[in-house]
Design a protein that fits this description.
Rossmann fold; 22% strand; 6-stranded parallel beta sheet; Flavdoxin-like; alpha/beta; Flavodoxin; Flav_short; 33% helix; 4 helices; oxidoreductase activity, acting on NAD(P)H; globular; single chain; FMN binding
Length: 147
Amino acid sequence: MALAKIVYASMTGNTEEISEIIEDALTEAGATVEREEVSDTDVDFFDDADLCIIATYTYGEGDLPFEFEDFFDELPDQDLAGKIYGVVGSGDLEYGEFYCKSADDFVEQFEKTGAAKGAETVRIENNAEDDDVAALKKFVSELMNKI
């Protein structure tokens, strides 16, 4: 059975809800899931995972959540070869080019770890609506198919 680990940061509750949707979909797909708020964990959380998932928000002009700063900086130093990763971002389209930029930044960090991208990044404006839930379920399905 695959072990999926989700790390998230949430200011308004939107990204926490998104991480819960992902957790439920992974559980339904047969994975064992551990989900942690980034303030309660560190980068070695992914050491024994098969699937490594980040759920992050972006604020301001493409700013990474302050809670994720240390985790983000330390992620490239991890050897995650043989693992699959996925990233989900929430943001606000009002920020134009900076919409969900933190999610894109995490993809770049994961690329330095040796992990393989398991699904395209999902970007959600604010909270998850029905279409977003469907996209998250597809995201989980694609990740599980890579295991």
